[in-house]
Every structure is written in structure tokens, then in C-alpha cells.
Amino acid sequence: MSTTEARAGREREAASLPVARAGSRRASAFLARRSLKAHRRAWAAVFAAAGAAAALLGAFALVIGSLLLAQPPVERYAGADAVVAAGQKVSYTAKPWGGEPATVTAYLPERVRLDRGLVAKAAAAEGVASAVADDSVPVVLGSGAAATGRSWPSAALTRYELTGGRAPGTADEVVLDTALAPAGTGPGDTVLLRAGGPARPYTVSGLARSDRDAGPAVFFTEARLTSLGGHPGTVDAIGVVAAPGVSPAALRASLDAALPGRAGGGEIRVLTGAERGEGEHLDALGGRGDLLALLGSVAGTVVMVALLVISSTLAQAVHQRSAELALLRAVGASPRQLRSAIGREAGRVAVSAAVLGGIGAVPLGLLMRSVLTTEVLPLPVPVWLPFAAGAVGAALVALAARPVAMLAARRITRLRPSVAMAAAGAPEPGDPGRVRTVAGLLLALAGAGSAGFATTQGGQAAAVAASGSATSLVIAVALLGPRTARVAVRVLGAPLRRGAGVSGFLAARSTAAHVRRLGAALTPVVLVTAFVCVQLGASSTLERAGDRQAAAALRADLMVTGPAGGLPSGAADAVRATPGVAAATGVLRSAVVLAHREAGEPVLERLPVLGVTADQLEGTLDLGVTAGGLGALRGPGTVAVGADRAGSLGAGVGDTVELRLGDGTRVAPKIVAVYERALGVGDFVFPREALTAHVSAVRDQAVLIRTDGPGSGPVASALREALTPYGAVRVGPASDGAVRAAPATSGEDDAMIVIGVGVIGGFALLAVVSTLALISVGRRRELRLLRLVGAGRGQVTRMLLLETALVAGAGLALGTLVAAVPLTAFSVALAGSAPYMEPARYGVLVLAVVVAAAAGTLLPGRRGR
């Protein structure tokens, strides 16, 4: 053959390649269209799973996007052009194991105040018309209504205007908010107010009204408010009004130049525009950061669950067509054509499901947002966000479906035609394959190792390790599905054969012959059981342990509590002076920030703490001291530490511990006692005087009382009489809630439980229904065959019921076992006890799983019976 002829042959071959590829694509598209119509019932289950996954992913994208955009509302400072406030963040830099130095930040829970001398500097800055010191104190009217006490000059910052009367001119005059003033009250009248002590009368010099909802206020003279605030050298914030024509950017630059330096170790911030709300709501952004971290963790679980459900459903849909694919392979279809056809089918189903799921993500995301939004941090939803969030969820599902389906079809499509024909009639393989088995075993070992690591850690590190353990074990069960199903059949199959007659025999033989199918059915049941048990069990365990320790620590008979702002100063002294009171301990709540390392990583942990009147502590609280003594808890340089926290810090009695108080002040108090009941009262207990200069409001939240008589009734009556000048205070039996360092569950925790259990648990239950429905659709020929060979309709129905019971029972048992491993590690590490879950909650979970399994098995299979 000449060179010319060879070249011409190569050119013809090259020209024919695009034609051949186009023909292959047309063949794949034809197979996909025909198969999609023939298997629409099977694809319906995939459609449901993919749509739900897209809705769930899009909803989380919407909530996370809304949180990233959230800013505290501007209400109190609506009339200010800028707000000068101290920085509310602290940072900690450390070098992780084998890495570069890393810096973490945390928001401070108490207000960092500014030097009062900065007010004059701000007023002298270029472009400033006026600068006003803004302080506040809690105030209670004689009627019991709570309000905020402010200075009259600061009324301009909230756009208050007098509707009658005049500004206060003396220390015993006030201006009342019209929303707060009792009916008929006007200038010249007298009102009874409690602000920092017993109630005393004030003359109403005027009434004022604002167009902003910043909460009811009472306005004093600036000198009187400074005296009531108790910090004459500092101010909470500075409100600045710009001169006409000065832009926010120019005002910020001018103030930045006029106010150099730092306040309390944090930078001085100039806030303009939407940032002004940060000066009002101290912890709003801190709460946003905590929520983002929680949502990020849950969102990672959602992605894992969604991919696991989609891949399991697609794999089962493809596996049910193994005989058909083998036959097509035997008659000449190429592996590439078959994989392409399966991918096209899955892609079309997933795209349509993802579009509907993306639309459904909007109402679901808005529902989740309504659970998380608060008055201090409303979550905005700009017009573009729902579209973007829905598109994200839809894109993730649509992009994942095709490669997963092609991978699931890989085993049967790569067989030679002759082998494929034999495989079409071969029994269902019972083993998951070598790669899946090895991967499943490795993940099971990793899950067990993470659980073991969690027992050696504390705090967030233990929670993260336990969560990683649960995730690894759930995926391991999914990969080892056929093997776990075989164990379940061996354990539960014998009772079915012996005790359920013909139907039991059929159910046992059917499950034993199709362990791969049973493994696919077990996976979503294990998933929902493990996920819900971990979510509910962790919170229930800590709540129960904390309640028990707080109750064990309480020695008081009575307690005095007040309004939300706390008890007026002097109330605790009045209690101690009451006859029959043997000991009285004031309880001041605050928080500290602890800088330390967990697993080598730098961590800033915010911990609630108690400040107590230490000289009478032993009569009202028993902390379970194991070393040292509470008698030495005196002065600002001492602290008592929980045993677990002391152990994690490697510290003991006589050592010092470095902390940042609520306002960022660095301290290194000496440990004078180590105690056991830290879950009940917190990791640190301070003398009250160590915290008073570092809290936003020096108000005891309760006074614990130990009486010295045979009964507390007469003492309670005497206390009510002694506390009459302090107004709305309550005397009642002591409860452990007064000594709990923090609520057992916060509002954020409750919201995350609702989202985690309600939304994700609901999706997992839908996965149970869709997976079992898919399996039931593929069994219709099997059920018809049983009817043809003589099985009665009732026998077949009872067989399906028994199989449902086996799937639900085995899945619940495996899921509970999977959850028990990380939960036990978590409980031992943090509570020192076995995990606990309320029986009623577990009962609801069992009922939901049984109903979902029955719906997925019986309803689709009714035609085959």
C-alpha cells in the first residue's frame, strides 16, 4: 500500500470517528428515553430522594446566607450618625501541631467601656456637631414595669422629642417615655422608681416619645445617671451627630484620627450606617458566629446524608435492572453506551427533581429562618437570596446524580457479553465487594478510634470527636450493608421461621436470599435512628447530669429573685439582716473566656461563671470540694475550679489560671479549691467582688438563703416585709435553676435541635420510605410468582409485615448501637455517666421508623399481592 493510500485510510478513519461517536450518543439517548418510560415507578423513588435532598441543601444555603448578611438592628442609635464603642472581641494566637501559627477570635459577653475623657475628644473632632455619653441602668417602676434608665442628653440619639413638660433639671426629676407612663400621668406628678436600690419617688418633669422601638426608657439628668451607673470614669458608648454636609466616611475618618488608642485591651471602633446596631446589641454578632459554626457542622452532616441517600437510592435502582443491562450488553450494547444511558436517565430525573426541590427550598428555608431569627439579630432575606439558595441546592444534586449512577452501573456494564448473559440469570450477589468491605472496616475502626479519643477530651473537642465517630460508623454500616444484613437475618430469621408459620418461613427465606437488598433497606433506617439518637441523647445527657449536680449542690431553703435585670443593690444586705436567716449568698452571673488548645488547635472558649458571696457560701452551696477549701475564696485574686477543667488545664490548688473576664480584662487568679459539681454550677466560681467591675450591670440574679429555724414559712414572711421597699422581688423555695451557671439548653440549642431532628430527621424518614418503596416496586414480579404457586393474599401480606418488622427492628437496633458508641464516649468525657435519652422521645422515634417502613413496604407492594 502506498503512502498516499495509507494517508487516505487514516483520514477516512478520522472522519468516521465523529460519526461513530454521534451514533453512540444517539443510541444512548434512545435507550435512556425508552428505559425512563419503562421504569418510571422505580425512578419515582429516586425523584423523591433527589428532590428532598435539593430542598434541604437549598434551605441550609438560604439560612447560612441570611446569617452571613445579618446585622443587629439600629434602634437606640437611630438619631446618631456614628457610634464610638470599644471593641468586643479578643484574639488568641498559637501554633498548632506541625503547622503555622493560627489566630482565633471570640466575642466578649460583657460590655467593654470607654474612658469618659474620650467624649470631649470626639466632640472636638472635625465635622462633629455634638458627642453624647450614653450609659444605661436597669429601672423598675412602682407598677413592676421594667425600663432602661438613660441620661436626657442621650435622648437625641434615639430621636426622642418632648410631648409635654421640660427636661429634668435636678437629681429627683425624670422624663418618662409615653409608652411607659401610667395612664393619666403628666408633668408635675410623682412616680416611684427603683434604680440601684430601694424605691424612691421622682417628679415627672416631662413626657417624651420616639418613632423608634428601642424599648421603654426613663431619662435622668446626666449627673444622676452617672451616679446610678457606678462607673463615673467610663462610659458605655459615645453617640456622635455630624455637622450638616459631613458624609459618614468623612466622619469616620475624622473620629479615627481624633481617638487613637485602645480601650480595655480592645480597639476603639467607630461605627456608622448599619454597624451602629453593634453598639446596642453586644452579643448579637457573637451569637451569629456561634450559629454559623453550629449550622456549618449540621450542614456538613446534611451533605453527607444527602449524598448517602441519593447514592443508595440510585445504586438500588440500577441494581434492580442488572438483568436488563446484562441482556443489553449481551446483544451488543457497549459499556460506554450503557453507562451513558444510565447517566442520562439519572441526570434527567435528578435535574427535574432538583428544580422542584430548589423551589421547595424557599419555604423550608424561610421556616428554618423563622426558628433562628431573634429581635437582636433579625435574618434578612434579600430578593436574590432565595433564588441563589435554591440554585445551589439544585446544582449540587443535579451534578452528583449522573456520576453516581454511572459508577453504580460500572460492575455490570464492564462484563464481556458472554459473561453478562450468564450474570442475567445469576443469583443476587451477597457480598459488598472487596473495596467496599475494606473501606467499611476502616471507617468502623476510625469511628471506634474517634469515640475512644473523645473519652480523653473535654468540651468542644469531645463533642467534635463524638460527632466524627457517629458519621464514620453510619457510613461504615452503609458500606457493609449486606454483611450487617446477613447478621440480622441470622439473629432474627430463626424466630420468624419458628414462630410465624408459613409467612414467617417466606419472610426468612426472602431476606436470606436477598441480603444486598436488605442491606440497602437497613441503611436509611440506621441513618435516621443514629442521627436522632445522637442529637437528642447528647442534650438529654448533659441536661440530666447538670440538673442532678445542681440539685445536689443546693443547700439553701429559700431564695430571693427579681425582674430580668436582677435584684437592686442592697437587697442582699436586707436579706442578711432579717431574723431567722443563717446564711445568704448573692449569685452574680457572668462569663469568662479561656484560651487553650484542643488537639493542638488554638481555642477561645466562652464559659458561664458564678460570682458568689463567699463568706456565707458553705451554708447555701455544697460544690463537692475535693481539694482546697472555699474558705479561702476571698478577694479578686482567687477562684474555685471544676475538677474536669482543672485536669484538662493541668492545674491544682495553689496554681494560677489565665483567664479573660467578661469585658476582656486579663486575670490570673490563684486556685483555692477544686470541686466536682461543675456541670451544675459551671467550671469557675469567683468571689463576687472579683466580677463586679467587669460586668455590664452589677445586679445579683438571686440570693440563696439558709434558715436557722425548724420551718422556713415565718422567715419567708419576714423577708417579704423586709424587701417591700425593693418592689418586685419574689421570695420562694430555693431551686437548682438559681445555681445553674447557664440554662441546660439555650434558645440556640433548642432551635438547632428542632432543625436537626425535625428537618434532617424528616428527610431521613423520607429516605426510608423512598428506598423501601423502590425495593417493593422491584419485587412485584416476585410477589406475583408467590401468588401463582399457591401463597394466599393474607400470607403474602403477613410476609411483608414480618419483613417490615425485621427491617425496622434490625435498623433500630443497629442505629441505636451506632449512636451508643459516640454517645457513651461523649457522656463519659463530659458527664461522667452513661448516656440518657427520654423514653418518650425514643418511643416517638421507634413509631416514626415503623410507620415509615410500613408505608414504604406495604403501599407500593399492594398491587403485587
UniProtKB/TrEMBL annotation:
It is a multi-pass membrane protein. Residues 298-412, 759-863 form the ABC3 transporter permease C-terminal domain. It is found in: Cell membrane. GO terms for molecular function: transmembrane transporter activity. GO terms for cellular component: plasma membrane. Belongs to the ABC-4 integral membrane protein family. This is ABC transporter permease. It comes from Streptomyces nitrosporeus.
